[in-house]
User: Which sequence fits this backbone?
């Protein structure tokens, strides 16, 4: 011990031995160094083990913070986009259903004075509609009559002319002039248009010959 | 007795990757016991001191590359050890949810039941007296009384002015005297 002159001022403390009263287990300091080095090596191994031999691209960790912040910003913007910009008073949707029912079903049941609005209430409109309907119907019937084969036949020259010839005369004519070839021709020309001029001349000749 | 390796040589070897482990072994040989006893006097229990001394030297290994040579190596290591002790005692206090006084009582019990204390009655009484002191006064006293450190060196360890250290030390000694007197 070196300069312990200060102890002269403290008699009680000076009487106490300044030797180290603590002890350690036998051989403790013999292997303390070895244990500390082992602990140091273990610590190093643990620190190296964090990467597990993997590496990262250059400046990865320098850019990682910026990348994470960018992602967070994007997420924030997306979330804001998805969020509803408008708000409703507190409890609005809880009251909405009740309000609608009150103004519709409950209101009709309570008053019984439902208002019926007629879109076409005018009498003139009704008559005009009926007239149009009748006109369309009549037009349709007329068109149907005019295109009817029987009507066309009645108004044809052949019908007009033959209707003036007595039935017996027609029978006599056919018996005298029609043979098997005519029947075949009749079948073949069925549906073909009739030449009114030739027919008229033929009939006139027949009439003249009979008279 | 082998001559101790100079701190400058240890630091020089530590700078070289090839001799770094050798430097650390030299450092351990030179300071392990000093650091151990500094810790032991603070935490009393040998097992706690054993854990802490290993933690201290692992921190020394991690941080030695950044050590500034304008400070003395052993005061720097004492500072690390002191901080580890204070952290340990505070954790003990928080873990048991007790005050520092209660921690002192607990340490006194540890001292009483320790197999690794062979001091006489007066020395035991001195240790009991030390346990009643605030941590800083206890540290100053231990470094001055047991390690014969100068105030300037203690100042580097604790980061406190020499004047304040002197005041703390004399206050500590007076309290110890009073304790020894009261128990006589």
Assistant:
């Amino acid at each position: 011990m070196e300069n312990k002159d200060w102890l002269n001022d403290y008699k009680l403390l000076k009487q106490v031995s300044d030797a180290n009263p603590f002890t350690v287990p036998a051989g403790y300091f013999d292997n303390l160094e070895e244990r500390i080095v082992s602990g140091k090596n273990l610590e190093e191994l643990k620190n190296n083990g964090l990467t597990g031999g993997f590496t990262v691209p250059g400046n990865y960790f320098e850019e990682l913070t910026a990348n994470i912040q960018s992602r967070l910003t994007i997420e924030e913007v997306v979330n804001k986009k998805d969020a509803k910009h408008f708000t409703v008073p507190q409890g609005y949707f809880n009251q909405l259903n009740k309000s609608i029912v009150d103004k519709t079903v409950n209101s009709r049941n309570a008053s019984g004075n439902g208002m019926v609005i007629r879109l076409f209430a005018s009498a003139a409109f009704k008559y005009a509609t009926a007239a149009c309907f009748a006109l369309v119907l009549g037009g349709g019937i007329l068109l149907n009559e005019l295109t009817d084969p029987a009507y066309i036949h009645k108004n044809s020259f052949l019908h007009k002319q033959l209707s003036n010839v007595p039935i017996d005369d027609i029978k006599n004519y056919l018996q005298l002039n029609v043979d098997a070839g005519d029947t075949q021709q009749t079948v073949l020309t069925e549906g073909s248009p009739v030449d009114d001029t030739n027919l008229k001349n033929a009939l006139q000749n027949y009439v003249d010959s009979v008279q | 007795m082998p001559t101790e390796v100079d701190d400058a040589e240890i630091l020089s070897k530590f700078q070289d990757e090839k001799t770094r482990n050798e430097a650390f072994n030299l450092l351990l040989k030179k300071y392990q016991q000093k650091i151990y006893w500094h810790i032991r006097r603070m935490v009393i229990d040998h097992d706690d001191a054993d854990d802490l001394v290993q933690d201290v030297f692992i921190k020394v290994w991690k941080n030695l590359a950044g050590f500034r040579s304008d400070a003395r190596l052993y005061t720097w290591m004492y500072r690390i050890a002191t901080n580890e002790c204070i952290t340990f005692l505070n954790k003990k206090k928080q873990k048991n949810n007790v005050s520092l006084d209660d921690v002192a009582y607990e340490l006194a019990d540890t001292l009483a039941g320790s197999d690794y204390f062979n001091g006489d009655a007066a020395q035991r009484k001195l240790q009991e007296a030390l346990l009643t002191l605030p941590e800083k006064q206890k540290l100053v006293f231990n470094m001055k009384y047991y390690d014969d450190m100068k105030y300037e060196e203690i100042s580097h360890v604790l980061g406190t002015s020499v004047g304040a250290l002197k005041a703390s030390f004399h206050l500590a000694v007076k309290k110890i005297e009073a304790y020894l007197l009261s128990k006589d």
